[in-house]
Sequence to fold (179 residues):
Amino acid sequence: MANLQLLFRALNYSAEQHKAQRRKGMESVPYINHPIKVTAIISQFIPQASDELIVASILHDVVEDTDATIDDIKNMFGDTIAGIVQEVTDDKSLPKAESKRKQIENASKLSLNAKIIRICDKIANVRDICGENIPDWDYKTKIEYLNWAEEVVKGLSDFHEELQFTFKDEVRWGRLKVK
Ligand code: ZN
Fold:
């Protein structure tokens, strides 16, 4: 990450936007921990990640989950970053089941940067859902999430062997740990 000023501007903005939110079922965990975890996974597996990818990852849930718009992101962070965020933002006007289906359907059409965010987002979520910070979800909801995440990741096709392997491994362990 060459541009630290840009990175901290994004972190600050994302934290501000998500400040009222807590992670699903985890009352004490501030939402910003999630994009930080996703971005940490990206930096671990892709040490040469571009500034645009890192910043888009920090901002990846801002439009979907807060009152920020893609135009806000464009104005503050430019077209490239806004474009990546747009790709990983679900259309909130659709019913939940429909937008989940669309994520599977559109997975193969994503740009490489968006695919990387998508899979690292799923890895982070699977770790949260099946790990120590167990959200307040019942067993069935957790298994449904794992099944859905697998479908989305399958749709991404083979673009990064190590990340695909890590995801599969997390799901495999997740299925054993989940209660
Ligand atoms: Zn996310």
Observations:
- The chain has a mean pLDDT of 93.
